[in-house]
Specification:
single chain; 364 residues; mainly alpha; DNA polymerase, domain 1; hpI Integrase, Chain A; 2 domains; 3-stranded antiparallel β-sheet; 16 helices; 3% strand; disordered N terminus
Amino acid sequence: MNGRQFLESTGQAAKADAEKELSRVNAMIAAQKANVLSQELFEHLTGKTLPNVTLKAALADWLNEAAGANKPATVTKYSATAATLADFFKADDRGPGLASVTAADLTRLLGEKRANVSASTANDFRKCLSIFFKRCKVRGYIRENPVEVIKAFKAGMDEKRARKPFSIDALATLYKVAPDDFWRYAVLAGFTTGLRLGDLVTMPLGAVDWQQKCIRLRVRKTGKTILIPLAPALFRLLKTMADDRSGVSASEPFWPEHAARYEKAGAGWFSQRFYDLVLVKAGLANTRPHRKGSKKKFERRAVHEFSFHSLRHSCVTTHAANGQNQQLAKALAGHSSDEVNDLYTTLPQDVLAKAVAQLPDITV
């Protein structure tokens, strides 16, 4: 395995029996490499019987467990994976049996998926499949995880387009065309804090220190607590929002309905709305068709050079353009490497505040 030899006893005393056992093992290895190690073949070669669990039952069991152990967004992703898997194999109470699903079958499914979505989306789907089948293996439903032998996809050149930061003029336009208070907040906060979409959508009222004029927040992606000085325009906007919600618990989010949507379904809806309602109106993107009503199972879209995450790039880029060193810019953006985090804790608050104060006001 991987160029190394592993020796293990066949468990047989007689040479003839040992050779038979070795032949069975070699046959299973060859079948696995060829992606054809089915339940029937495994049982024929080993004489062992695997539990007769249907794909439908295993998926239902997986989702039932996931509902109590994962965040709503993760459960939603797993549910979509299960629905696609069940549809592809036409799973019902009669079958197919879980152990009869082969790597060759899943390779076809993943191939169909990849033909219409990005490599990153297809690989995320592959990861969910592997989580499901690994769980089935641990429970003894199957002998091997069939996804393990399927390689991840590589992104094509058209999918490797780097996200671009917005120019200052473009940022001002984004703020101006934003259709409502939420999106004006999202644009302004995304640029001046560098926070990711999920952190901004779900940010609680108590995250703002009104005396120190800063945000103290535990970042969802890394779990690290960061401290970011507030740009004057953002401070005024947040203060108005907080005053409108006087008496509300500090643990409540600034945007309750949006936060609930994000917790339930993730960033997809917000990313799409930012594209349609802000980027397109700002003249930075073209209108694109929606998936709803499409006859295709999947619909692939080209990677666009701008997205909500470009606001984060804009924050770091503008700090650099203002003469701030790279380490300070990374610290303000809350990047998660140990080196940056260690550095961040030693930067005086007044140094960070001066850096934020130099950002242009895109609201005027």
